[in-house]
Every structure is written in C-alpha cells, then in structure tokens.
Amino acid sequence: MAAKVINTSGKRKTAVARAVCQEGTGKLRINSVPIEAWQPELARLKIMEPLALLGERAKKVDIDVSVAGGGVMGQAEATRTAIAKSIVEYYGDEELEKAVKQFDRSLLISDIRRKLPKKPLGRGARKKRQKSYR
Length: 134
Known about the structure:
The protein is an alpha+beta fold.
C-alpha cells in the first residue's frame, strides 16, 4: 500500500501556505527550516497552537509547509491553518474536527477578510482630504 499523503492550504490576507502531511516522527518544517529555528518567537508560538492542541496525533506525522506572500503574522496564521487542516484530514476524525473548531474556527477555515481598496480623493480606503469652506 502506498504511503498516505495529504495536501492542504491555508490563507490569511495575501499569505498562502501549502502543507504536505505524511506519516513520520513529528517533524515540522516551514520553507525547509525546522520550526525550532523559526523567528520571530510570537509567530512560532502562533504556528505551534494546532500541534499543542492535537498533542500525540501531531507527533505521528511529518509536515512540510511552503509559505509565501504577506507579512510575518499573516504567514504564521496561514501556516497554522494549513497544519491543522492537514492533520484533521490525515486522521479523518469528526470528533477531532469538532474539538479544533471549538478551540478556534480559523484553524480550519481560512480568514477571507481583505484590505479595502483605496478610493479617489483620499490617502486610503476611508481617509479623505480635509475640506475648508473659508
């Protein structure tokens, strides 16, 4: 029988993370860098959330993530979504899926919020040039 391989993706703002999950010893690499060496620490802690939540099950799979686009925290959130989705899909357990959704829905469902486009006569989406009537 061929080895079970799961491909998933996670998105946040303009960051896109693609995860490949397969049987292994609990290794997690992001862009070929082990998670222990990932900087900054706050982003690393964010990425580790699904691993802490899923506990022993996360130690039986190897996950390789490639992430591109966006900023540091956008990439971290896209990565954690891709990791959680891949582990839940690998085990195919509905109870596990419910537990993850109850903890944080954004672990399984990508955040669709995007930046509002800039409008004319202003510096951004909402800010406008001041009017003077005198």
